[in-house]
Amino acid sequence: MFEIDGAGGVLEDTYAASGSGTSLATGALERLYHEDLTLSEGVSVAASAVDSAMERDTASGNGITVARITAEDVTMESYDSLTEVH
């Protein structure tokens, strides 16, 4: 994965977070992410990271949108809360 920061720098990593809740989301990603996640587990980890940011950063908005990207397709779903994702 590649992330482009606000100054145009390119960072390569296995996961990324951006926006006003970055530090909160990154903390959740560091705690929950591991290399051999299934797609379902990855969705849960990503949604938990967004939820962490939403709970403590009012600028992170409300609701969670998850994009599932596979070799076959891309699907997007929106949820009002973390409990709906699981």
From TrEMBL:
GO terms for biological process: proteolysis. One of its GO terms (cellular component) is proteasome complex. The keyword Cytoplasm applies. Gene3D superfamilies: Glutamine Phosphoribosylpyrophosphate, subunit 1, domain 1. Coiled coil: none annotated. It holds the Pfam family Proteasome. InterPro entries: Ntn_hydrolases_N, Proteasome_sua/b, Proteasome_suB-type. GO terms for molecular function: endopeptidase activity. It comes from the Archaea. Keywords: Cytoplasm, Hydrolase, Protease. This is Proteasome endopeptidase complex. It comes from Halocatena marina.
